[in-house]
Amino acid sequence: MTENIDIIESEALASLKEAVDDAALEQWRIAWLGSKGRLKSLMAGMKSCTPEERPVFGQRMNALKKTLESAFKSVGDQSVPASGPPIDITEPGLPAGMGRQHVLSRTVDEIIDVFSRMGFSVAEGPEVEDEWHNFNALNMPESHPAREPSDNFFLDGGGMLRTQTSTVQVRVMENTPPPIRIISPGRVYRPDTHDATHYSMFHQVEGLWVDKGVTIVDLKATLFNFARTFFGPEADIRMRPSFFPFTEPSAEVDMWMPVRGKMQWVELGGCGMIDPNVFEAVGYDPEIWSGFAFGLGIERIAMRKFAIPDIRWLFENDARFLRQF
Ligand code: DAH
Which of 284, 307, 137 is nearest to 214 (CA)? Predict the structure, then answer.
């Protein structure tokens, strides 16, 4: 009986060799391995076996099935489609879309460029922060109103998303002895409702200059030089007295800059002379060192510079909008 199966096996393998295209292969599969194929009907022969013959027959049939299946699989793996349209290798390919820098990244790069010419290097800090770096070290104690849960993204299990890049001032001073001259561009987070001028994530650029004998004149000169280089020869700055916990005195910074070709005052951020409490928090002696800091809103700069009326457009990733810059 098993000799019979040997003959059937060679017959099956021979006819598989003759199957030259996908259609013939499929026919072979149906004829031999299909649910009504030869293998199935041979199996039915089990019934006429004696109890002693049965295991031998069964084993031989299993081996046959394996042989045919793997022979079919290896032929199928090598087969090339015998029909179908020919490939025209001279046909032009699909045009590859050219990417471009996002208008905000471009603004950040230009800001870095201007400040690096004034000797600032770039420092980075984490977006997931602790309250020490976001508040305490910046002279904002537990009782400070900006620490309200509704004004911050506090994280389960401790920590928070930073609300300001001023955190990086603290991190740099903690890790580096003075003198220091850095800027730090990056994302900050506040739970604001989204509208044309508010978003729960935006970008700031922080500046920090610490040395012996730094005065408010250096602060003003630095911001003025930035404005002239970034916005053009007519640009100017104005400082309006204000309050920030980490600077004393503090001011709001406005820049006289072109908005759709017309010069205008635009409020860009805050600045001031580093508060002695901040120096003490990072272990600098306020009797020896002095310095200034500033923080500017990057969306504000880009939106005014490029006349973008809605902050949400910056984050929707609509290529039709982004391609314009
Ligand atoms: N961190 C402030 C804010 O997010 C902006 C700021 C004000 C930064 C004064 C400064 C500064 O470095 O000196 O509103």
Answer: 284
